[in-house]
Amino acid sequence: MAGRTHFAAPLLLAVVVALILYVSLWPFHFGADGPPVLETLRQLNWARASRGDMFNNVLLYVPFGFCMALLVEPRLGRTGALVASTSSGALLSLAMEVLQASIETRVPSLTDLSLNAAGALGGALAGSAWHALGVRMTPRGNPIGRSGAIALSVLVLWLIARLWPLWPDPSLRQVKRAVRPLFAPELTWTELTAYFVGWLVVAQAVFHLARRQRSVDAFLLVIAIVLVGRTFTAGNTLVFAELAAIALLLPVLVLLSRIEDRGRSAVLAAALGIWLAAVAVLPALGGPPQVALEVPAAAEFLSRSAPPPAQLAGKGFSYVALAWLLAGTGLFPHVAAGVTVLLVLVLCLLQVGAAAPVYGWIDLVLAVLAGIMVARWMPRGGEGRRAGVR
Fold first, then answer.
1. Confidence check: pLDDT of 125 > 90
2. pLDDT for position 352
3. Half-sphere exposure of 196 (CA within 13 A, CB side)
4. Which end of the chain is least crowded, N or C, by CB within 10 Å?
């Protein structure tokens, strides 16, 4: 492991440093008569900060420590990486505090410096854990074939669902809006489960697409794209439940990597199917009992409005992923497609009488489209396995 490098680390580190510079030096109005460096250092004090500001200072440098550890641990070892990551984070923070002394609206302090260093240390510990266990997340082998197009579709739908409206907003106001929910974190098991299952499926898609030796770094890039994207796209925020789900992924993916591809697809298909069923059944359990199951009238069924684009992409992600995973278990693609459509039809019937049905005609349309994609693009039987493994 000592010699293993991460191709994603330099790119991610550059993005993180740019983010730190942007957040620390906004609005970039440097005064011409700023104090000298030595005078600034003497004036640094332990200024009091709000809980939100303290959390923000720690959070800002966690990605820096994480990327630094990935970059330097192959050369310096674990202890050296922790020391180098923390000290470089502290030096970067010190430089930001000195520069902030020339910006009228910013107040440099030793409190910020210590919190930034603590964040770098926490990120370095996480990066060291990723370096130690990340290689074990890679599955033993991935079948190749035309199903790569389905895996790519799964990944693209997930990115659209998480980053819609895809409109960049690099303002500091958007950054503050994005991190504000983390100041008062809320966690429900339903949210955590949804993100956890979703990211497990995304990992399977990435591992299917990327070369074996680079698959873990490719997955890390996808995580970074989503988190950075939600920070800088209009109206989006970071979600604490999603961050918690991502943190739980590492040990679970290590366990799943020991299962051959068919078994891993079966586990993920079962998890996704159970979750889709739970979305339909659990709300009904808390409502009034239904006397009988009746098929809704066509007019009422078709009158259910289509969901917004982000939710539409999320539904498409679920149905394409489910059909793809079922085919990955060894089912014929047409059978996997039929099972997916049948499941969605049953879920629609389970929503009969619900005040706010989660499933409707659009779900059937998306399930049929997902089934057609899988039936046409997935290799039949052992074709993918005969083609070889990555």
1. yes
2. 67
3. 19
4. N
- Give me the pLDDT at residue 293, please: 39
Q: Is the pLDDT of residue 183 over 90?
A: no
Contact 363, 306 (CB under 8 A): no
Kindly provide the b/e burial profile for residues 181-192, where b requires at least 16 CB atoms within 10 angstroms of the residue's own CB: ebeeeeeeeebb
Scan for tokens 């051959």, then name that residue.
260
Q: Which residue has the higher pLDDT, 38 or 160?
A: 160
pLDDT 10s digits, 342-355: 999 999 887 766 66
Does the predicted TM-score (pTM) go above 0.85?
A: no
Confidence grade of residue 199 (pLDDT, cut at 50, 70, 90): very high
pLDDT of the residue at 124:
94
Do the Cβ atoms of 96 and 68 come closer than 8 Å?
Answer: no
- Output the 3-class SS for the chain: CCCCCCCHHHHHHHHHHHHHHHHHHCCCCECCCCCCHHHHHHHCCCCCCCHHHHHHHHHHHHHHHHHHHHHHHHHHHHHHHHHHHHHHHHHHHHHHHHHHCCECCCCCCHHHHHHHHHHHHHHHHHHHHHHHHHHHHCCCCCECCCCHHHHHHHHHHHHHHHHCCCCECCCHHHHHHHHHHHHCCCCCHHHHHHHHHHHHHHHHHHHHHCCHHHHHHHHHHHHHHHHHHHHHECCCCCCHHHHHHHHHHHHHHHHHCCCCHHHHHHHHHHHHHHHHHHHHHHHHHCCCCCCCCCCCCHHHHHCCCCCCHHHHHHHHHHHHHHHHHHHHCCCCHHHHHHHHHHHHHHHHHHCCCCCCCCCCHHHHHHHHHHHHHHHHHCCCCCHHHHHCEC
